[in-house]
Design a protein that fits this description.
This protein is mainly α and 262 residues long. 74% of the residues lie in helices and 2% in strands. The protein is built from 12 helices and 2 strands. The radius of gyration is 19 Å and the shape is globular.
Length: 262
């Protein structure tokens, strides 16, 4: 393929919808196991650390520690869910099952398949966001209309990390390759973005690094919303997440074209 064809910005059309719907129909057969898998670990962490360590810590930033960590877990769950879908599930459909190959032989372009996968990653992230937010509401936190804005935030986080996952999918020779992403990208996001403790407790140079992480911007939006407050610098946080999402999706599409349309 010509370089200009490879590098052109992805096209958007409604032809992605049947592919997205296909993923939904397949997921419905395993919906219970999928939902449990997506929320069980963050829920256990939230309850064990929130009530265990929370008994020693008390409040952080005007909220009980269980609510503090729960808000971080909402964003973390969206991050992991979208990343997993963009890597393991997408790799299965692309390389193992060769579902993508069959689809693009129909009147559907690779860009449509990529858009469907990207939207599906964000949809799965939204599902996990809803599930954990319901748990927080049941525990007595987030009873404010502003907390509903965490739902579109979860979708945006899904777009961001779903795009990252699709980049890794385009590069991966096998499933083991994804370990690099979990170790080098997701784990630092989890530990440095304020999920478990305030970022301002870290050294100044680490705070600078943390402010470049997309998960940090998501949490900075979610925590005030959980308290019924409007976040500071909303446009900045949204712009950073959107920039990561769009750049990641463009790169994922370029790399996937190079891999599949040689």
């Amino acid at each position: 393929m010509h370089a200009e064809t490879l590098l052109r910005f992805p096209s958007f059309s409604l032809r992605f919808l049947p592919v997205w719907r296909r993923n939904l129909l397949v997921w419905r057969k395993l919906a219970v196991a999928s939902i449990l898998g997506n929320i069980a670990e963050p829920l256990l962490y939230m309850l064990a650390l929130g009530y265990g360590i929370g008994a020693l810590i008390g409040e952080i930033g005007g909220m009980p520690y269980v609510a503090f960590i729960g808000t971080g877990m909402v964003c973390q769950s969206a991050m992991f869910t979208a990343s997993f879908e963009g890597m393991y599930s997408a790799f299965s459909r692309m390389h193992v099952q060769r579902t993508w190959e069959a689809i693009i032989n129909a009147p559907i372009a690779l860009d449509d398949v990529m858009l469907a996968e990207w939207m599906w990653c964000a949809t799965k992230a939204l599902m996990s966001t809803i599930a954990i937010l319901i748990v927080l509401l049941a525990l007595g936190f987030g009873h404010t209309p502003l907390a509903l804005w965490i739902l579109p935030l979860g979708f945006l986080v899904g777009l961001t990390f779903g795009a990252f996952g699709l980049v890794m999918n385009a590069l991966a020779p096998g499933y083991d390759f994804f370990t690099y992403f979990f170790t080098l990208v997701l784990t630092p996001q989890l530990l440095m973005s304020g999920v478990y403790f305030p970022v301002d407790q870290m050294p100044a140079w680490l705070q600078v690094a943390a402010n470049a992480l997309p998960l940090k911007h998501a949490i900075d939006l979610a925590r005030p919303l959980m308290l019924g407050q409007a976040p500071d610098a909303i446009l900045l946080h949204v712009a950073v997440l959107a920039a990561y999402a769009i750049a990641g999706y463009w790169l994922a599409t370029v790399l996937t074209r190079r891999r599949l349309l040689k």
